[in-house]
Amino acid sequence: MDMGALIARLPKVELHLHIEGTLEPEQLFAFAKRNGVALSHPSVEALRAAYDFHNLQSFLDLYYQGTAVLQTELDFYELTMAYLERVAAQGVVHTEIFFDPQSHTDRGIAFGTVIDGITRALTEGEQRLGVSSKLILCFLRHLDEDAAFATLRQAEPYLDRIVAVGLDSSEVGHPPSKFERVFSAAREHGLLTVAHAGEEGPPEYIWEALDLLKVSRIDHGVRCVEDANLVARLVEEKMPLTVCPLSNTRLCVFPDMRAHTLKQMLDAGLKATINSDDPAYFGGYMTENFTAVQEAFDFGPEELLALSLNSVEASFLDAGAKARIT
Ligand code: ADE
Ligand code: ZN
Fold this sequence. Notes:
Elements: H1 3-9, E1 12-18, H2 25-35, H3 44-49, H4 56-67, H5 73-88, E2 92-99, H6 102-105, H7 111-129, E3 132-140, H8 145-155, E4 164-168, H9 180-188, E5 192-197, H10 203-211, E6 217-220, H11 228-236, E7 240-243, H12 245-250, H13 262-267, E8 271-274, H14 279-282, H15 286-297, H16 301-314, H17 319-325
């Protein structure tokens, strides 16, 4: 059987995608020109050549620099629409998108400008492209608790457009415990919770995300395999892990795809899913991520379908919508 053809046909659900990480260099230059923003790289090619990362922070430094070109509601709309068009062509039927409001509000962009542009595209994407979606507000963990609370307050008028809060940015040194109270406040508002944990940080951060932040999914979580008791708990609770294979190799979490722990995770009974994280920076969207793991582990139809099904089950869709995908 042709695995490429199967991957192309597979109904895909994306659960770990930073909308700011879909900003392709060409679009970044176009927005910079439209908004009169000076860039530190002279050309699209020079910028792309700089995407040579050695860890999470080396990526984040460029990622936050890139956000400077996003200024108007139209920018956020076009950014989101371009992502939806690309993934609709790859067979993505549902996507749950992170956004980092603090990376914009700290530059003087209004929270409403950001969320209005993103959600206008999400509504159009559902109607015109048939891609359903949900939106997850991420707190930047390198900033303090007060800043996260201020962001939650800014989000209050828009809570009907947000399904969950998440936690991203520089992991090591910023444990989930730092955000226990703001996550509790978010849950009191009726929001679900997720958190990046165990990407570069230790298994203890995954325990904290479960016990203190009461997450419904762990984002990344690949370092869970270092702790057998943690793996047992994650299996027992059927806790989804949103794995991002190309991200992990591009950020040197693993030296190459064959060294990735995905297969070990699936063999242990963990509910791993495949996602693209920041596709404009890491060399691919959903299809490229599926293809990379299929080739590295020689996955057949059984594994590919299991991965696809894990994502449907782990999504925040209701039971009826899940049944319509499978
Ligand atoms: N922000 C965008 N991508 C991220 C990642 N992979 N880890 C943490 N924060 C992020
Ligand atoms: Zn991420």
